[in-house]
Description:
Elements (H helix, E strand, L loop, with lengths): L13 E3 L2 E3 L4 E3 L2 E3 L3 E3 L8 H9 L4 E3 L3 E2 H17 L7 H30 L4 E6 L6 H11 L3 E5 L12 H15 L4 E5 L6 H9 L5 E4 L6 E4 L4 E4 L10 H10 L6 E5 L5 H10 L3 E4 L1 H6 L3 H15 L30 H4 L3
Parallel strand pairs: 5-6, 5-15, 6-8, 7-8, 8-9, 9-10, 10-11, 11-14, 14-15
Antiparallel strand pairs: 1-2, 3-4, 12-13
Helix pairs in contact: 2-3, 3-4, 4-5, 7-8, 8-10
The site of flavin mononucleotide (FMN) has 23 residues, from strand 15 and helix 9.
Amino acid sequence: xVLAPIKTINKAKFVINSDIMTDLSAKYLGLTLKNPVxxxxxxxxxxxxxxxxxESNGIAAVVLKSIFEEEILHQVRKKIREAxxxxxMYSELSETLDYxxxxxKEDTLNDYLNLIRQSKKETFIPVxxxxxxxxxxxxxxxxxxIERAGAxxxxxxxxxxPTDQTNKNFExxxxxxxxxxxxxxxIPVSVKxxxxxxxxxxxxxxxxxxxxxxxxxxxxxxxxxxxxEKMEVVxxxxxxxxxxxLNVLRWIALLSKKTDCDLVATTGIHSxxxxxxxxxxxxxxxxxASVLYLKGIDYLSTLLKDMENWMEDNNYYYLSQLQGKLCxxxxxxxxxxERRQFMKHFGGIE
Length: 350
Ligand SMILES: Cc1cc2nc3c(=O)[nH]c(=O)nc-3n(C[C@H](O)[C@H](O)[C@H](O)COP(=O)(O)O)c2cc1C
């Protein structure tokens, strides 16, 4: 896909101490961010030391490492198995089960709430909590606790396994969870989704009218690979590659003007140029993880400097000048974003 060359628009400049300043500030979920770069939920946002390092290198906000409903349930089951093996469970089986269940959940949840409190106390950046939920039961109540702990927003990391072959209506579950959480809390709620839906555009627009304020496109998942040397299944690359941003770019460009909420780009964003492309497509912010693992948290300052330099070189002084400038509604050839098949006219390949 070849996008039109970027032309200079508004040449307004603002001058502080005779230096030309570039204003990278962005709005996401109603929060004012000093720039559009958010640390995506990952191990880098799972402890206070790393969160502070992200802040000192210029990150605009952090999405904390997700608390996983499945992981907690798995731990509960494991403890129950261990208890059964130790013959700890006699007649008061249900009481023991309840104890294990409550104990593990409370410990994990309290650790998470403490990380929120500590991050709010020790940094000045917005802190977004992340819940990976697969049901709409007690997690809804947990959202309230997250709000009370001081989080600025909640990101719901929603993923129902697409290999499930039952007739469950997944789309309905996503909408129900989102609606229920929005009704419970006063802070903004965003939803992070995968690209694996039959009617992705409909899911995104329907989700955007549940009252959530942002959608994060798209989560990237663990992939298995096969090792020919070991003849066994091994984990594929944990980290994204820099060309993986294209599918996200397409969907942001297609839907940023058709949704009632912010769209945030994640996956494959490794350079200032890619951040600028996502903003041009209509993203209000971006979330990054792999590039920080691969190049170190210090690389953030380079990313931000490169963004400023690009904007100055191209006579843009406010990020808002770029936002959505090349979304589907604003380009000369809107069909370019929808085209899927290679054709000579678009791909230039016979
Ligand atoms: C090591 C690692 C851990 C991650 N953990 C989470 C998580 O707990 N919750 C979540 O929503 N996404 C998680 N992600 C996904 C990232 O938030 C991000 O959306 C994804 O990696 C795509 O961005 P990237 O290409 O910049 O890595 C994780 C990614 C990595 C690499």
